[in-house]
Amino acid sequence: MSSAEAPCVKVVGVPQLVRARNDPGQYDDLADVWWDSSGPFALLHAIAEARGGLIPPAARPGAVLVDLGCGAGLLAPHIRSLGYHHIGLDITASALRQAGEHGVLPVRADVLALPLPDSVADVVVAGEILEHVTDLRRAVAEACRVLRPGGTLVLDTLADTALAKLLAVHIAERIPGGAPKGIHDPALFVDRAELRAACARGGVQIELLGLRPTVGALLRRQDKMNVVRTWSTAVLFQGHGIKEAPR
Predict the structure, then answer these.
(1) Which residues of 156-176 are buried (b: 16+ CB within 10 A; e: fewer)?
(2) Strand ranges for the chain from DSSP E
(3) How confident is the model over 89-128, as pLDDT tens digits?
(4) 125 Cβ partners below 8 Å, 6+ apart?
(5) How many Cα atoms occupy the beta-carbon half-sphere of 227 within 13 Å?
(6) What is this structure's pTM?
(7) For the chain, where are the alpha helices, taking DSSP H only?
């Protein structure tokens, strides 16, 4: 990915450099708006809340939750009462600094090569990161590797469908207050069958659940962005499953 910079432009009132699609440098450009729940990351706030709803309370003292692609730690408020040591991994230093301010133990690392031992985590979360990686199988393998048997895998991402590419890129990036321009590369959107197969190889039978913003949220008739469950996994979806013990 190239990080070559172009002239500064305005996107929903936020100065942002135009970069190559999926360039991680965009998160540095948007560092000041991570925690603005009505700003460019409004949908990420809503998805993080929904993600937290799939995470069970810690079953033992010292339980560990590994948060892959944690960003600025948007998941933290939604799991703070669940009893986990929250470890967040990301490649963006500016985001990790903010995650640390919200109770996350920040670790700068690539999700394709986690600096963690096998079976260390009671929960592994991959929130809005799989559609950004260049090797889905490896990312899922790493997530499953660090998850202990009996532990929970939780994820959310964008589906590799024409509808997802239309809505999440061609439309969302043109709506005032929508997704930051170029934040996604639609070529990296996630094939659901490939995802299921990769999870199964790691010992996790994943269940997929569709998500969508509420109509009121899309029309900006609500103070905050909200998402609800839907029958379709063709655009935005969650997944969760338990890692089986070796036979």
Answers:
(1) bbbbbbeebbebbbeebeeee
(2) 8-11, 14-17, 64-68, 85-90, 105-108, 121-127, 147-158, 207-213, 227-230, 236-242
(3) 999 999 999 999 999 999 999 999 999 999 999 999 999 9
(4) 51, 55, 65, 66, 67, 68, 75, 154, 155
(5) 23
(6) 0.91
(7) 25-29, 42-52, 76-79, 93-101, 136-146, 162-165, 192-201, 215-218
